[in-house]
Amino acid sequence: MARFRYFLIASVLLAVLAGLGAGGYKWYKAWQEEQFLKTAPETPGREILFRVEPGQLFTTVAANLKSQGLITDTHRFYRLAVRTGKGSAVRAGVFRLSTGWVPERVLTELTSSTGVMRRVSVREGLTWWQTAKVIEEAELGDADGFAKAVADPELLAGFGIKAKDAEGYLFPETYLLTPPKDHPARHMAEVMIREFFKNAHKVWPEGLPPFEEMHQAVILASLVEKETGDVTERARIAGVFHNRLKKHMLIQCDPTIIYGLGPDFDGNLKKSDLTDRDNAYNTYVHPGLPPGPICSPGLDSLMAAVHPEEHDFLYFVAKGDGSHHFSRTLEEHNRAVRKYQLQRNRSTYRSTKQ
Questions:
Q1: What do you get for the CA distance between the two ends of the chain, in Å?
Q2: What is the mean pLDDT of residues 60-73?
Q3: CA distance 236 to 297
Q4: Residues 251, 253, 258, 259: is their CA dihedral positive or negative?
């Protein structure tokens, strides 16, 4: 209705001004410009989700705006952008616009707002397949696409990750972003890996070490992450693992076995699982660290792995309150197990550590 009224008035004016010459024509063009600036394409307006692709030319953006009924004139919209100094300030993303807005409001939204963004919180200690589920639930990509991305040799090589997948390098963080139209799951994997390397420079401020050295630190950090949620204990637990490795003792870390059992693990760790040599991640039978990270650790665990506490503890057992009791000898450890675990009818397999 608003557009019809505008064209009706314009037709009458053209008829009146036909004989007024150049002065009348200039006045008419100025009037058109003013009407464009203060008139919305529709009244009332319709909400439209409008996407601007990265690197898209302003002329293309303007053409798309017109095709979706958000502006009525691409040339005048371009002149408005130039006049206000916003011609190169349009952001990539998805924007919630309305056909009931005047052009200046549309331009302001495209150049100053964050657009329609999605938030996802990925906590520390998740495996890649748990992370894939979180990403899918946040509508930032499908789980299958994420699974393919984290194991894509080309993507891994681009970041210098010489491993079978990106486990350990999907940095836990709260992300706020607009997913791209194409391959959103892959984009999310890239964002998380990039965030890992950003934080890795905090761990190694003088420069990242060779990949193999860094990878061993990430593996150890993933064990620390899974063993405790108490940030004050992480350096101490890292020290226990360092001490056991130095003495060529088995790590005997339960979460490594669980990781090796894969996504179908039912939560019941059986005695037979502790003796299963076919599980490459079974640190009860295989010496040294597991073949890869068992989750993506946070910054605190990475710091702890690289800067472990120096002590002579070789064992630890959960006390049931989120903290652990640390022991220097097997005898002391077994007493702690009886005190903190057996009294609560919990599993006794940790007492076999030696």
A1: 84
A2: 95
A3: 16
A4: negative
